[in-house]
């Protein structure tokens, strides 16, 4: 089981899984394509707020969870799948009480 680390290769994988070009992601993150390239080649360190926007735009919450929990991607994905229905139920229940 491969653990995921925050590095340029991981950022690139997030973007490519979504099928996005560097130009499209740069536009959505309000960055230059050059900075996207630098981040993906470990020439520039990503800031926390930019990482969160990157995760949102690439729909990569599973990878963020895997990095934070130091677990493999499959386990992180399963955690999210298991949590989402529970969170919805708690939200609905909270509205009824």
From TrEMBL:
<dbReference type="InterPro" id="IPR010982">
    <property type="entry name" value="Lambda_DNA-bd_dom_sf"/>
</dbReference>
<dbReference type="InterPro" id="IPR001387">
    <property type="entry name" value="Cro/C1-type_HTH"/>
</dbReference>
<protein>
    <submittedName>
        <fullName>Helix-turn-helix domain-containing protein</fullName>
    </submittedName>
</protein>
<dbReference type="GO" id="GO:0003677">
    <property type="term" value="F:DNA binding"/>
</dbReference>
<dbReference type="Pfam" id="PF12844">
    <property type="entry name" value="HTH_19"/>
</dbReference>
<feature type="domain" description="HTH cro/C1-type">
    <location>
        <begin position="11"/>
        <end position="64"/>
    </location>
</feature>
């Amino acid at each position: 089981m491969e653990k995921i680390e925050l590095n340029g290769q991981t950022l690139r994988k997030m973007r490519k899984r979504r099928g996005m070009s560097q130009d499209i992601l740069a536009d959505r993150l309000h960055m230059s394509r050059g900075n996207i390239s630098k981040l993906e080649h470990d020439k520039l360190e990503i800031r926390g707020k930019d990482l969160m926007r990157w995760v949102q735009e690439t729909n990569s919450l599973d990878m963020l969870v895997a990095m934070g929990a130091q677990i493999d991607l499959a386990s992180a994905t399963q955690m999210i799948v298991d949590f989402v229905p529970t969170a919805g139920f708690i939200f609905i229940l909270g509205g009824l009480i």
